[in-house]
Every structure is written in structure tokens, then in C-alpha cells.
Amino acid sequence: MWKPEKILFDESDDEGLSYVYFDLGNFRYFTLTFNPDEDDEIYLEFNEQTFSIESNNVSYTLNNRIVSLDFGADIQEALKIEKHIDIDIVSHIDINSFGKTLANIFPMPANRDSTRTIKKSINTFHKKGNKMNPVFQPYTFNNGATVPNRLAVAPMTHFASDENGHITDQERTFLQNRFRGFGLFITAATLVQANGKTFEGQPYAISEDDLPSLREVAQIAQVQGAKAILQIHHGGKFAPKELSADIVAPSSDEASGARELSAAEIEQLIAAYANAAALAVQAGFDGVEIHGANAYLLQQFVSAQTNRRTDEWGGSLHNRLRFPLAVVDAVVDAVKAHANPDFILGYRFSPEESGEHGITMTETFALVDALVQKPLQYLHVSLWDFYKHVRRGADANRTRMELLHEHIGGRLPLIGVGNLYTGSDIAKAFDTGWAEFIALGKTVMINPDLADLVRENRDADIQTALDPDRADHYRLPDPLWQRCHNNSPWLPPVKGMERKTVDI
Question: Is the same domain home to 113 and 152?
């Protein structure tokens, strides 16, 4: 008999929609959804396989808190499950409401003909009008880690850590209750080595002195129900002189004053990323994201524009990919030595660069092909515009998201991002099928209760621009609040100011 670790369900609304999610433990779960507007079909998802089933192809009984399910032969074969399954309902569940939900999911009598063929469908189901947004489906990664939905908090630079890279009261205020209802929380870019510091108020993951601060950040996110993911980062040539006396990069750079890294220093940097990952494990994080995007150090190695080395770390694309892949391998080894198997590893990348020698989609496809061979759980694309078309190296009539998702081909889930603010924006992006997760940053800054608003379909209450007169509402750290007023395109738009765009 299965004993669920968690059960989530919605009672039927006026249109009859019903939903129930069983977390069975041991990396097994299934969902049942019924919508009478969609040909009286049940959507059954079992361990990431989703089927559209005619409602008379499965039956149930509920007796003394035991749900008994009987499945047709086609379902048994397709999902590799037994004909008869018993589920022991945990005591804290309101059995009356639970029973009503089941009754709405299974409207047909149990004795109806159960020989009809099931139809395999895509892994989405739609809940229209006042119904649940489709992003509120659980997801199980390839290592068994399960998240309750497909919403991710994008890494947001907050400029609020102290001079030692540790959490402050303003940072606490910013983080508290902002991520309630999200599946993943990805931290602000967290420094792995002192000479890579890129922002005032950047958090650190450099030494054991950083553990108390890191531990607190992880716990703040986890209390809100999100998986806490530490993004680890080095700015390379974009570490400003006022923050780093020794700016380093793959190749020397006159404009920034960066010097070329030695081979020994490259090995030390690889070790620094591994050390940061080990600190994340010790601090209780649920995962680590390697920051390989936004033209920072890892991307600088990938790009022929910034990597002009002639040794094993540069030259050919194969050699330019060597450093980020070595970082991935080192992080994997560090995590394997310290973390549970369900620790989540992700990699963030920018798909293109401008400039004659900048990264092209062709080169990014090569990076993706290398990354999917690693024991990662997800890839995370960095985009200013979710719908941005390809610049070069692939079909310019199609979007980067579409082509990336197509190229990945289900080998890893993809997190998409890019100026999405409302529930409608999120649902539209998710419905493209180009991403398994949607990451949100700017809208989270100006809507501290965003996930609740999206779940409740309250688009009218979601702000899409920052109101300069509502500082207390946003709870932003002072440095971040001041930067918002400068109308940066990387931050939320400000009411009364013309919106700036970024062509990346």
C-alpha cells in the first residue's frame, strides 16, 4: 500500500475542474486532473509521463481513508503500474473535501466499459478562466528531487550584503516572504573568489566564515516552501577596480585593466567553484547553480571575443569550453562527496553575444551538448526578452528559446526568463512549450506576493512598474531602491519613466 508523503488538491470550482497531487515518496508521484470542458477526460501524470484518459478507463473507491484505484489494461502497460493500487490517506487531510474532489475527477460509474484506448498527450493541462495556472504542476528532476511547481525566482542582485559578504537586516527584509509559493529560489550571484567581486553588497561563498550567512539565506527560502539554490559566480574582467585590486580574465583586457590568468590560477579558480559548492552543501542549500552567463568569467572563456589564449584553455571552441566544463566537473565531485543524491545542480548561460567574434547559437548548441552529458538537473538561459529571435548561427526567424528547447530535446529541463510580469505573461510563455520552468526577477521585486497573485489569477493586482511613492511596499534594500530610480533596463520599469530595452 502506498502512503503519500504529501497530498495537494483543489475542490471543484463552478465549472467542475478538479485536481489532486499525490507525493508517494521514493521519487514517485502522480496527479489526476479532470475538466468537463475537455471532453470529460482525466489527465493522469505518473513520474513525468502524462496521459489523457477517458474518464471511464479508471475507477476508484474510498473506504476508511483508503483510496483504491483500478486502471485499464492500456494504462497499466503504458505506465508500468499494477491494475489495482491502494493509497493510505494521511490523517491531516480533510477526507470530506478529498472525497468531493475524487468524485469530481471520476464522474463516470465504476462499472462502465473500461476497454477504450488511452491517448498519450503533452505534459501540460490547461485550467482556464478562474482555474489554476498550468505552471502549478510539480516536477521531478533526474536525480529524484521534486519541486511543487514550475516557478523559479531568478537570481536578483540586491547590493545588500555587508563588506564581508554576509547577510544584513535589509537583505533579510528583502528576502522574507517574497518567495512563498515558488518551486525554486536562486540566490543573487555569490562570490567564489575575492578578485571576482563585481557588485557592492555581493554575498560570499569563499570560506567557512561565510557559512552562518549562507545557512540563514537557505533557511529563509526553505521556510517559504522553495528549494534554495546557491548561484556561484566570478566576474572576471567585469570586477571593477574599486572592488578588486587584481582583475583577472582569460586574456588581458586593456579597457578593464584585467590581466591574463596563469594556468595555475585557472586551476585555483576551478577549486574555488568546487569549494563554494561544498559550502552550499554545508549551509543546507538544496542545490547550486553555476553562473556561466551575462559575460562573466565562465562566458569570457567560452567567447572568442574575450578568450584569445593559445594554450589548452583557448583557441578552438573545444578548448574554450574546457574551463566551464572543468568547473562543472569539479562542482559535481564536490557535491558527490558531501551532498545527498537529490542535491540539484544547474548551469546558467547566455546564448549569444554581439560583435564579430561573439558567441553564436552554433557555439551555444555545442556548449549545451556538452552540458547535457554532465550529471546536471537543469539548464537556465539568461535572456532580457523571452521571445527574442536568434541573431546568428541558426534560423533568425525563430526565437532563441524555441531553438534551445528543441536542441536540448528533453535531455534536461530548461528554465526560461525574460520580462514576464503577470500570470497571463507566465502562462503564455509556459504554453509555448519552450521551457519546463519560468524564472521571474523584476516582477518579484515589485510584487512581494507574486506567486499568490498568480495562483489566484489576480492579474489586475500585479504591478508591472515600480511606484516611487511605495517604498515600504516593495521592501527593497536602499542601494537597490536607488538603482531602480536610475531607470536601469535590468531593473523594474518605473512609473512615469520611458522604458529602456536591452538588445542582447
Answer: no
